[in-house]
Amino acid sequence: MDSELSPLWRKTFYSLWIGCFITGMGFSMTMPFVSLFINELGNFSKFQLNFYSGLAFGATFVSQAIVSPLWGSLADQKGRKLMCMRASGVMACTIFITGLSQSAWMIIGMRFLQGAFSGYINNAAALIAGETPHSKSGWAMSAISTAGIAGNLVGPLLGGVLSGAFGYRVPFFITGFLMFCVFLSTTFLVKERHFKPIKKEKMRPIKEVMAEIPNRKLIFVTFLTTLIVMASSMSISPIISLYVRQLMHNHGNIAFVAGIVAATPGLGTLIAASKVGHTMDEIGPEKVLRIGLITAFILFVPMTFTHSPWSLAFWRFLLGLANAALMPAAQTVLTLNVPTEAFGRVFSINQSFQAGGAVFGSLLGSIISGLSSYPMVFAITGLTLLINFILIVLVQPKKPATNKKGY
User: What angle do CA 116, 207, 393 make, to 5 degrees?
Assistant: First the structure.
C-alpha cells in the first residue's frame, strides 16, 4: 500500500475487499449450478431447462436495473456504506431461502428479490473511488475488482465440491451465512471519511452534472461497454455446466469439472489485475480497455470450436487475462471523468447497465443454446465484443484521461 493511504483507509479497504470477495464467491459458488439444481426440481425439456436457467440468472438483474438509480440517489444522500450494509443484509436472507426452494419459479422469485436489494460490489467500488487519491484510482479500482474476481475463482471450485458431496442446496446455505458475516464486518469496520451528505433538495440533477463533463460520449459508451462486457460474461454462465455435461457425454463428476471451467477466467484475471491497474495509471484506462476488448474477441474464436472441457478451460483462462482490462478500466474511466458528488448516482447508472447486460446476456445465451447450439453462444458473444471495440475507438478522446487531477 502507498504511504499516503492512512491505516484507517487500509482497514476500510481490506474490509470491503473481503466483503467483495465473499460476495463474488457466493455468487459463483451457487449460480454455475443453478441449472443443475433446477433440473432436479422437475422434468424439463432442453429448451425449458435452458429457458428457466436463463430466467433464474436474469431475474436478479431485471430488478437490479430497475431500482439501481433509486439506490444511487440514496447513496449520494446517505452514504455508500449504508448501501453496502443494505445489500449484504438482504442477500444473506434471500440466498439462504433460495436453498429451500421447491420449484424453479421459487428460485426465480428469490433471485428477483435479491436483485432489488443487491449492489454490494458496486457501492464498495464507489466508496473506494471517493476515498482514493486520483493518482491511485487505476490501482484502487483494479485492486477492489480482484476481490470479486478472486471470489469468482474460488466459488465454482468450492461449489462444485460441495454440490457433488452434499447436493445443490448446501452452497446456498453456506453463502447466506457468509453474507451475514459481511454485513457485520461492513457495519463495524468500514469508515467513510470523505463522504459529505447531500440533502435531496440541494442535490444537483444528474443531467446538470453530466452536462459539465467534457466528453459525454465517452461516458455513455462506457455505460454501453459495461452492458456488453457483462452480457459477454452472462451469456456463457447459465449454460456452462450444461455445455460441460454435453462435452463429457454425461459421464464423470460434471459439477466439479464445470466448477473448474467456470473458475478459470477468474484465475487469469486475478493474475493480470495488479499489472493492468498500474498500466492504467501510466497509459490511461481507455487504451487498456481497447486492448482488452480486441483480445477478448480473438479468444472467443477458438472457444467456439473446442470439443473438450479442458480445452475450453484453457481458452477461458486466457480470456480471464483479457477480462482484467475490461470492467476495472470502465470503472476507472468513470472515476476520472465524473464529479465526486455524483459518484453514487453515476455508479448506480453503470450498475443498471451492468444489470441490463446480465439480463440480455443470460437470456440471449439460453435462447441461442436452446434453439441452436452451445458453440453458437460463444460466436455471437465474440462479435458483440468486436462491436464494442469499434465504438470505443470512435469516441476515444484526443487526450486520454490522466491522473493529474488533485484529490
Answer: 90
